[in-house]
# Entry
Amino acid sequence: MFSALFRKRRVPDVEAALAEARALQRRGRLDEARRACRAILDAVPTSREALRLAGLVSFLREAHDELLLVADEVARRAPDSAAAAALRGLACLAQGRAGDALASCEAAIALEPSAGDAWFGRGVALAALGRPGDALASYERALALCPDDTATLVRLGQLQQALGRPADALARFERALALDAECAPAHGGRANALAALGRLAEAVASYGEALAIDPFLVEALINRGVTLHALGRSGDALADFDRALQLAPESAPAWYNHGVVLQALGRLPEALVAYDRTIAIAPAHVDAHFNRGIALGLANRAADARASYDTAVALDPGYPYALGQAAFARAELCDWEGYATAVQRAREGVGQGLPACDPFALLGFTDDPALQLACARIHAARRFPRSPPLWRGRRHAHDRIRVAYLSANFCEHAVGYLVARLFELHDRTQFETTGISFGPADEKPMLARIRSAFDRFIDVRALDDGAVARVLYDLEIDIAVDLMGYTKDARPAILAHRPAPIQLNFLGYPGTMGADFIDYIVADRHLIAAGDEPHYAESVVRMPDSYQPNDSLRAIAGRTPARQEMGLPERGFVFCCFNNNYKITPTMFTLWMRLLTAVPDSVLWLLPLSASVTRNLRREAQNRGVDPARLVFAPRVGLPDHLARHRLADLFLDTVPYNAHTTASDALWAGLPVVTCAGRSFASRVAGSLLHGVGLPELVTTSLADYEALALRLAHDPAQLRSLRERLAQDRLSLPLFDSDRFRRNIEAAYRTMVARHARGEPPRGFDVEPPRH
# Structure
């Protein structure tokens, strides 16, 4: 503190000393400015200007006790002066009294309109009161009076940054650094602006400059960690968060961001600890509640995830994706209390143009393709804005068409099972294929099989999205095929960099991606009917049979288990649905319970995700007057055994609005008839596409009433069911759906058409694939 404020000493030229002290303060050299003020006040204890400047310096140094001492002294000596009012305003700010601070600063300005410190204090007060526009004007006025004041430049830059004007903010911070290269807040602010402008590597360097000056800047450590994580340097990010937590163990932002990085690294238990610490410190931290829900979902703790999402919605009903996730968590659990309301709120939010729901979740909430397109566009614009394109029109001259398939699912996954044979059959005289894998590198047979099927297989897990895009560009890929869309572990941002001239949405995601960097979606005439093209952001390519490839080598175990082994009754009709639990809606389940009631001794065979699902569905059956014991739940087994046990079922019941996809082709491959109801969207028409692909269009209905009537009729007509089974069994490999090489020829014809059109300089345009003659 100013322990010797009023001890009289000699200063040769007080005005010159004041000018020097002001210059030091404006350049941000606050310790030197403080010493200069002390020297003046030692000589002239009554110098009002020196006291006023000393108070401002104390405020900027956050030496609040010092500031209050000086403010009291000026108020005692000159209570009605502009200096007293300005210092009173700064003192109020130090005490968190923004309203009183504003009144005092405005009183100072009324007495002295050229009081730069009062205009500065007024700006700080207005910003604290949530009046950013007025604060901006006040800072601008302070800067006009004192153009080289680093404190004003920094505050103005911080406010412009908060207002979403990073380019303007950057100019302010760089001006401040030109005046004082050692101004740590200016380096930190510059780094924040650079990060907002996407100049991440420069931002990291600027945070480093700030921390070199002041290693204890917790905010700079946290922000650098966030930026390092965005650059894919998660290990370095964790080190910054660890350091921040050493300095500030109760920092909610440090704990939260620590959790985000741990979650991205798959270290879910540690991430959950970090989120829990965040919430303990800041119970209303909506980001932590929402991300905790995601982590719990990934850890297969859907009930806990639902509670976290509900809390996020309660804290902020408009929080991006929270409404949709709260509804989807209920769907995963088959917990339908509040389900209809949650789904309706999510749909309404999307209809209002809000990011209320993830596009994947919405597939199960509606079959309205227009709403799904709106949702996908909102999501794409928010999460995957187009980056500066790598490919800018350069023509590739290759002997073979270069096709790259991108996926995290080149493994024991539904998509892996479907595409493995296609990769093996590609015509190597005409196509060069590359697998871009960002999924697990396990030692299971499917990954080995898929890896060996490609000309080139690249594991890109360690690369960020931009670096993967550069790999594709450097390989001069002609066609980049996204096999994931918006499913779990997808990385659409790779193609947002436009590494290839032709980019496709194929197979993994049953709907539009709503992104302008995806050129085509692969469908068929059953999935996307003529006239429905406006509901898809991509140009529609219709395959002549089904859009879905299949593996004609898929093995079915030779042994069929006994019904008793599966918990099924020895006698009685077996309805089954092996779809994911989130596809089972209350409407579908009610219909199924009516079928059980109408078919004596029948059971419904399901594949539960968890004990919670089993418990919830048994309760729902009881509520609908059906003995819960008539629900039978199948354990998880390997794929050959799973396919074999389909022989124990009599009829597969599909779901709407999200159909069976791979599960439907599994059933048909195993010889089990599927009854479906075709809706309006891609996801709600897949099973119908597959049934046309096996020559059973009569099993496709267009209303739930017809679906129920057909299922009931088949349950009472064993001869017709036997006929359907026989039709599936007769020369199964000749059916279009299961003719792998036929599909290969068709998709290659599609690729050739795309490349030919591109070579002619034509933009992407939808077309129907003509089957090649052979």
User: Anything to note?
Assistant: The first strand starts at residue 401 and ends at 407. The chain is about 55% helix and 5% strand. The radius of gyration is 33 Å. Confidence is low (pLDDT under 50) at residues 1-11.
